[in-house]
TrEMBL record:
Protein name: Group III truncated hemoglobin
Protein's organism: Haoranjiania flava
GO molecular function, one term: oxygen binding
Length: 122
């Protein structure tokens, strides 16, 4: 199995993650019922975010907290939601990649989940 090497790999992770998350009974409703999502655009925005985080590109120019704060105002995100998101994200990476960069993507996601959880539930 290869390590995460480029944007295409990150896009694969994002797409495969959403294949798990959308039907998930714990977090799926955030993606299907709470707000409408243009999936083509959303996949690109999330891939841009991870490309910036992992490979230092400047593709992502937004504030990642803003849409999540709005989402949280519509449907409260709780600890178990963040745990499920992280579990699905981590499983997706482990299914497709291994190596230092794959571990870095998981480590960054873990940090992001903890920060978002704290900010959503002070």
């Amino acid at each position: 199995m290869n390590d995460v090497q480029n944007r295409n790999d990150l896009e694969l992770i994002v797409k495969k993650f959403y294949e798990k998350a959308i039907p998930d009974p714990v977090i799926g409703h955030f993606f299907t019922e709470v707000i409408p999502i243009d999936w083509d655009e959303h996949i690109q925005v999330v891939t841009n975010f991870w490309d910036s985080m992992i490979f230092g590109t400047s593709e992502y120019k937004n504030n990642p907290m803003s849409p999540h704060i709005h989402l949280n105002s519509l449907s409260k995100m709780q600890k178990h939601h963040f745990e499920k998101w992280l579990a699905l994200w981590t499983a997706t990476i482990h299914e497709h990649f291994e190596g230092d960069t794959a571990r870095e993507v998981i480590n960054r996601a873990t940090s992001i989940a903890r920060i978002m959880e704290f900010k959503m539930n002070p």
